[in-house]
Amino acid sequence: MTAINYDRYYEGFSLEGEVWNQTEEPMEGLKARIKVIGSDDKPLAEIETPVEPGVLPAGTAGSFEVSYEENSPFIKGYQISFIGPSGSSIPHVAGFDAR
What we know:
The chain is mainly β. The chain starts with a strand and ends with a strand. 0% of the residues lie in helices and 62% in strands.
């Protein structure tokens, strides 16, 4: 991930991220998986969203966006991982107060 911006507001939050394909091959069907973490450190939700473009050429950047507007008073943070073309999970980053 090369950049992430979030907006935390009363109803929930939104994320915008940029990722970079560091491989020498194009990646098709890459998805961002956002796990929403509650104040009790347990998952509230899990959201998957595609990284655009759908085929990410080698050495180029793609982006994703997501909004979550449920259980707002209970949100502690988020964790982001990515689902690669083979379906394997690629862990990455946590934000707000999540670990």
